């Protein structure tokens, strides 16, 4: 064992792996891979896969205790199929910002029977974002929902999928013009949501409603509702086409826009 460690490159010993608590940030890793080709092998698929596993395990918000006291993982990646590019992107997705709000969305959906746990993200899910910069430039919870939403299913066969249009428009559930989400809409001065607005989880305006008469999602037009945040839009009970069970209640709040 000692002989094996002596053969390791000093940079590997100091900067790569759990023993250093991942001393280098993801930005450092990307920069080194781009500028020091002789270091690329020190940050290859094996090391990145190990770092991804470590980062997922370090996000306490992505673990929940079920009724039997056992830990339930809410999110994982199908990383056995990932190459270096997807592994770098997955590490970024986990490390660049907390998953607390989205973990609540996933947990609620799982307990309501709207998704299977853990949600397993594929390379295609990660690549719904053009690149790391595109992911980091969007409000964090919106960027996370763009990857996770299609795994939250409704009883009418639809899902909480987001659709980004070329003009920047965001649509939810159904890829049609009237299903637009207006992210961070203008609010009157002193509005309650303005006072408590979170840049990473901003308010959204929409006209989307589930019609029990028609058994499907519809847009009722007009100015619609304003949800307090992206996560509120995702968790509010009227977004779920199945009744909420296990005594859970929605944390979302909506008001009719004026």
Describe this structure in words.
With 258 residues, the chain is α+β, with helices and mostly antiparallel strands. The protein is globular. The strands form four sheets. The protein has a six-stranded antiparallel sheet with strand order 5-6-7-8-11-12. A two-stranded antiparallel sheet has the order 1-2. It starts with a helix and ends with a strand. 34% of the residues lie in helices and 15% in strands. The chain folds into two domains: 1-43, no CATH class; 44-256, no CATH class. The chain contains eleven helices and twelve strands.
SSE order, as H and E? HHHHEEEHHEHHHEEEHEEEEHE
* SSE class: alpha+beta
Mean pLDDT metric: 80
Estimate the strand proportion.
15-25%
Give the % helix.
25-40%
Radius of gyration: 21 Å
* Tally of separate domains: 2
Outline the biggest β-sheet: 6 strands, antiparallel
Question: Treating each run of at least 4 consecutive H or I residues as one helix, how many helices?
Answer: 11
- Report the end-to-end length measured between terminal Cα atoms: 69 Å
The largest sheet has its strands arranged as 5-6-7-8-11-12
Shape: globular
Low-confidence regions: 1-6, 243-258
Counted beta strands: 12
Output the keywords.
single chain, 258 residues, alpha+beta, 6-stranded antiparallel sheet, two-stranded antiparallel ribbon, 11 helices, globular, disordered N terminus, disordered C terminus
